[in-house]
User: Fold this.
Amino acid sequence: MTSTITAAVMPELEGEFEMAQLTLDDPRAGEVQVRMVATGVCHTDMAVRDGWIPTTFPIVLGHEGAGVIERVGDGVTHLEVGDHVVLTVASCGICVDCLSGNPSFCGNSYEQNFAGGRPDGTTSLVDAGGHRVISHFFGQSAFATYANVPTRSVVKVRTDVPLEVLAPLGCGVQTGAGTVLKVLEPRMDSTLVVFGTGAVGMSAILGARVARVRTIVAVDVVAERLELARELGATHTVNAREADTVEELASISGTGVDYAIDTTGNAGVVDGMLRSLGHRGHAVLLAAANPEAESKVNLSQAVARAIRITSVVEGGVIPQLFIPEMIELYLAGEFPFDRLVRTYPFAEIARAFADSESGEVVKPVLTFG
Assistant:
């Protein structure tokens, strides 16, 4: 029994969203069909639209979905109709990383999330003319009223928190907070610096606050973002337009930065981040960067200071465990990520993207009436 849905289709590279009526097929074995209630807008959607991460067009993007299960495919026993769910990154479940408890680093991540359609090459969507439209972006293609989603992308959540609030947890918030709490695990007496105060950066600051880090520094070029970072837990801020960032961080830390996170993907920012590290400092790269972006490392200084550079995907977490943990922190008043959100009706997806790209909004969330 196929369904007619409404979706925002990206027709081509660097295109504009087009609202369309599409036909959605039945959920397959190992999939559930989710009625979308809300979907976050993330920088990775823009990176795919602009060709930084290759895929196939036309495609339905969107990868921070939250909704209610309406149908269940064969073989699914741990999820049922009516469950509230948050959708997240897809993983294969059989590679060495998945089997060792690291699904965010799945060795088949490209095929699972970006290649175009299901891993077997099929798509769940066709347009009115019977032409293929690519589905299963990040396992979900959440810029649509309904989606068929593999269960490894599904996180069951409690029903007493609005799904409009929970939608961003599946990617951006998970990435920032997970990097701090599950990868860096910073000492309480340390200095942690976040470069870039978008949704990922702000979530890292919130994670550092949960970890009770003594000195939390936010670096950005937008004064309003830095003010919000202070409200959310940053003890210091640096406006990179007004000060030499490396000098300011040296003054704040005294002996150099212990932990640093780049969320910008800007090579110049990364260069400064690496120079700001102290002895045994640990730097993390999170951003989906332009493929041509490169940063240089002074090998002699890197060895002398024993610095570490780590790349982290999706916070390095197991989403089915970490997303419920973030919800409990939120309900306890320790993790107010909802302050990053502004909601938009689904039909205003173009405005939501524009406001995100201009920096006016930290985390746009589309809602489905």
Q: What stands out?
A: The radius of gyration is 20 Å. The mean pLDDT is 96. The longest helix spans residues 172-184.
